[in-house]
Amino acid sequence: MCSINLDALLRSLVSDYQDAGHSIAVTGQLGRPIRSAPLALKRILSNLLDNALKFGTQVEIGLQGLAADQISITVMDRGPGIPVAELNAVLQPYYRVENSRNRDTGGSGLGLAIAQQLSLTLGGSLHLSNRDGGGLLAELRLPNRDA
């Protein structure tokens, strides 16, 4: 754990995706440093953004302080979403909604499981839900630890 500027980390991550030709909208900012593990946080967000870009369109990432003790980072897309009965299952290793073995259409089923494990390691949680109008919302909640 170390002091990180979460606003700068998000801007840098999104800039890398934009440099690769992807469009990602960013909303919100925290405005102060927090204590967290930057590599784990970057891995979580990369896995969520990779999925949003692979399966959806109109990808957005948002940041906000929920309360004195919690931060919310959301990754949203407009795509097919995930069947409600499978929202928790996709957080388990090797589980995929798309059952073919073709990596171009489904991957290995580890991205969300890794994001889930790392969020728990950081003292946070990862929640998935379908959006009204189509798409997925992945919300990472982290403890709001002052730097």
Give, in spatial order, the strands making up the sheet with the most strands: 2-4-5-7-6
Q: What is the H level of CATH, i.e. the homologous superfamily? A: Histidine kinase-like ATPase, C-terminal domain
In CATH's first tier, which class applies?
A: Alpha Beta
Radius of gyration, in angstroms, nearest whole number: 15 Å
- By oligomeric state, this entry counts as single chain
Membrane topology: Multi-pass membrane protein
GO cellular component, one term: plasma membrane
Keywords: Cell inner membrane, Cell membrane, Kinase, Membrane, Transferase, Transmembrane, Transmembrane helix, Two-component regulatory system
Domain Histidine kinase: 1-146
Task: Compose a concise summary of this entry.
With 147 residues, the chain is α+β, with helices and mostly antiparallel strands.
Structure notes:
The protein is of the alpha+beta class. The chain has a single domain (2-143), classed as Histidine kinase-like ATPase, C-terminal domain (Heat Shock Protein 90). Helices cover 29% and strands 30% of the residues. It contains three helices and seven strands; from the N terminus they run βαββαββαββ. The chain has helices at 6-19, 38-55, 111-121; strands at residues 2-4, 24-27, 34-36, 57-67, 70-78, 125-130, 136-143. Strands 2-4-5-7-6 form a five-stranded mixed sheet. A two-stranded antiparallel sheet has the order 1-3. Helix 2 (38-55) packs antiparallel against helix 3 (111-121). The radius of gyration is 15 Å and the shape is globular.
